[in-house]
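Lab notebook page, bench 4
Experiment: in silico fold of construct C2
Operator: M.H.
Input chain length: 356 residues
Purpose: comparison with the prior construct
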Amino acid sequence: MNESNPDPVQPAAEPEEPSGRSGREPQAKNSRVPLMLVLLAAIAVVCWQWYDTRSRIDGIREELAQRLRASDRAANESRVLAQQALEGAREAQGKLSVLDNKIAESQSQQVALEALYQELSRSHDEWALAEIEQMLTVASQQLQLAGNVQAALLALRTAEGRLARSDRPQFIPLRRVLNRDIERLKAAPSLDVTGMALRLDQLIAGVDAMPLHFDERTLTVPKPAGPTGASGLWTRVLTEVWGEMKQLVRIRSMDQPDAALLAPTQSYFLRQNLQLRLLDARQALLARDPARFRSDLETARAWITRYYDIHAKTTAAALTNLKQLEATSINVELPSIADSLAAVRNFKVSREKAVR
């Protein structure tokens, strides 16, 4: 800007040379033109740069504004999504709380059901063990008193089946003891005590039907039909007197000369005593007393042979049964089921101690 106004300075610097002033003016003018062009070019460049920078700044500002608006929209959307997520989380938290309450309630119900199931199972097991103990007690009594092996086997098999249906591991030792006693009873010699007792009952019931060697019976003499009138009356009276006289003496043939003859009043006591002997033999059979059993049977057979008619069918059948019963040995050692009974009782005691 200072170079564009040189005229006021130059006249003051060169006052003494007026003649040369006109020659330097064209040169100065020629030198100012390039300067003006350079200045114009610089101004144009500066303007262009300023415009370009301004355009870029405007573009950047517009882009930044768009990005800010997009960011605002994204932030709004994120805020809405966050709000929705927060509401969903709150709702889920509420549902989770409800589920937790239901789970806690179901767990408490499950615990109560398990306790009830354990109580019922324990009660059922205790009831089953009590029933098994009762069965084994009765079977042991039957085995000791009557030698009833089949009843003991039935009781043991029933008890083992009850334990097998429950399918509990704690019953395995108890089932092992029961199976061992079952195998011991299977291997034991069989003795039909019930059948022998029934045969003795039949003998006792048939004592009254067996005839004696001399059985006093009242004979009924038929009254002859005679003519009516005085002669008929005397004839009937004489006939009745003769019949009464014949009743005073009887003559019978005896097959055994040494047969014992009993009075009518003694025959009743003989039959009663024979029945008592057979009853005592039955008691000895149930008590497993072979000496008393054999002695009673021998005495009964001797009485029948001496006092009864051995040719009668009933007497012969009774003697045959007595001989067969005498030939049967009742001195058989039967195994005991005390191990099974003790195992059941010990198991019950251990369960009661565990519950306490």
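Observations: Residues 193-214+253-327 form one domain. The two ends are 119 Å apart (CA to CA).
Next step: discuss at group meeting.
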